[in-house]
Design goal:
Elements: H1 5-19, H2 23-28, H3 32-43, H4 45-62, H5 66-78, H6 83-96, E1 98-99, H7 104-110, E2 121-122, H8 126-130, H9 134-138
Antiparallel strand pairs: 1-2
Helix pairs in contact: 1-4, 3-4, 4-5
Length: 162
């Protein structure tokens, strides 16, 4: 089920805080809407609603003070038993394009079924790999995918013109 516009805005704003990348960079991956919807699918609407509500509380409570925003993010989200594991997985999702199942106790406590397949649960979309934030963070390109294109290794090298 696609997220509402307000939910999407909060998701992106939280993602900016967690990843350290700007909104335009996250949207340029072409995966922001996909990840927002995937997060809801993997954790349940009630849990993503709670995460967005906590983030909204952080935004309203920090009054533009970056130190206060960091402190509130830690206390209301990252250190929270329900929201912390989801937020940390969201960070991994943005950087690596993978979703690691949450601990079994989390699924039992917060009423959502774990994704099939066991760890790690990879999001099956090629862009998740090629657009992972790990590459620009490291100043690198994803092997075999950029800048020359996906599966470039399957073709013989072109002889340079002399």
């Amino acid at each position: 089920m696609p997220a509402s516009a307000d939910h999407y805005h909060l998701f992106l704003s939280l993602s900016v805080e967690l990843t350290g990348f700007e909104r335009v960079d996250l949207e340029a991956t072409g995966l922001a809407r996909f990840y927002s919807d995937k997060l809801t699918e993997l954790t349940g609407g009630e849990n993503t609603d709670a995460l967005c509500a906590a983030w909204q509380q952080v935004e309203q409570g920090c009054h533009g003070d970056p130190d206060q925003r960091i402190a509130l993010t830690r206390s209301l989200i990252l250190n929270d038993q329900r929201l912390g594991p989801v937020a940390r997985n969201l960070l991994v999702l943005w950087y690596l394009g993978q979703w690691y199942p949450l601990p079994n106790w989390w699924y039992t406590e917060y009423g959502h079924q774990p994704p099939p397949g066991g760890p790690p649960f990879v999001i099956f979309k090629p862009e998740c790999y090629t657009e992972g934030l790990v590459w620009p963070a490291a100043g690198a390109h994803p092997p075999g995918a950029k800048p020359f294109g996906y599966a470039v290794w399957t073709q013989p090298p072109v002889e340079p013109a002399i």
